[in-house]
Amino acid sequence: MNTIDDIDFSALWRSHMVASGRPPKPASDWDAQAARLVGKSLRSDYADAVIARMDFDGADSLLDVGCGAGTICLNVADRLQRVIGLDYSAGMLAALRANANAAGLSNVDTIERAWDDDWRDVPECDIVVASRASLVVDIGDALARLHAKARQRVYVTHLVGGHFLDPAIQRAIGRRLPALPDYIYLVNVLHAMGVQPKLDYIDAETGPATAPDFETLAQRVDKSARGLSDEERDRLRNWFDAATPAQRAGRPLRWALISWDKKDCL
């Protein structure tokens, strides 16, 4: 009889990533966005919700994997002796350092590293967080790395539902985009690792439908859909003109917050 223990969820994830047709973003894509994040407030309802659910008791250090410009680590740096931002985008790390300097923070370090690079020199920290950074090629390897670098606790957020583009917009343009792997993969991979994670959900900012005008919306949808045909653009225009403000706003993006304390692991 086959059971859940016979399923290799890491292998299934890898197959799903290929089927989704989403190529990995090169660091240069993030480098190009980094400058606009210098001097910008990194506080958001999403960041506040993640931080409010984190346990800092007994913790002196934090490793923020896929840190970007510092949305999580800079907002908790005043609670800790040392925070480290790890990212494969040199531009984002430069933005993080600039934001740290502007905030007068002297306990912030950065490490330029990708998920599949050598992490042997990455220091262990009391808390490890990977916020919206888990769309990787090999989720089993990624979770094992986070677990290995944490002395106490790990926090990971992952998209729920597999779509960044609101389903209403997908229906409007007449195209169903392939879903990305959902958060449940992470739960099952962790189960196989002997980790019993806690699970919570965070509703955050909405997607492309929050655009202030049609042209901005069309640009965002074109990017998410990796190209719109003229017919799809016309359909989107018709939807936009007929939609109410609430319909244009769309549904919030939901994120699963998956966390575990190493002392509770099997």
TrEMBL record:
The Methyltransferase domain, residue ranges: 63-137
Pfam families attached to this UniProt entry: Methyltransf_25
Example GO BP: methylation
Keyword match Methyltransferase: yes
Top-level division of the source organism's lineage: Bacteria
UniProt-listed CDD domains: AdoMet_MTases (cd02440)
GO MF term (any one): methyltransferase activity
Keywords, in A-Z order: Methyltransferase, Transferase
InterPro entries per record: Methyltransf_25, SAM-dependent_MTases_sf
Protein name in the entry: Methyltransferase domain-containing protein
Taxon lineage: Bacteria, Pseudomonadati, Pseudomonadota, Betaproteobacteria, Burkholderiales
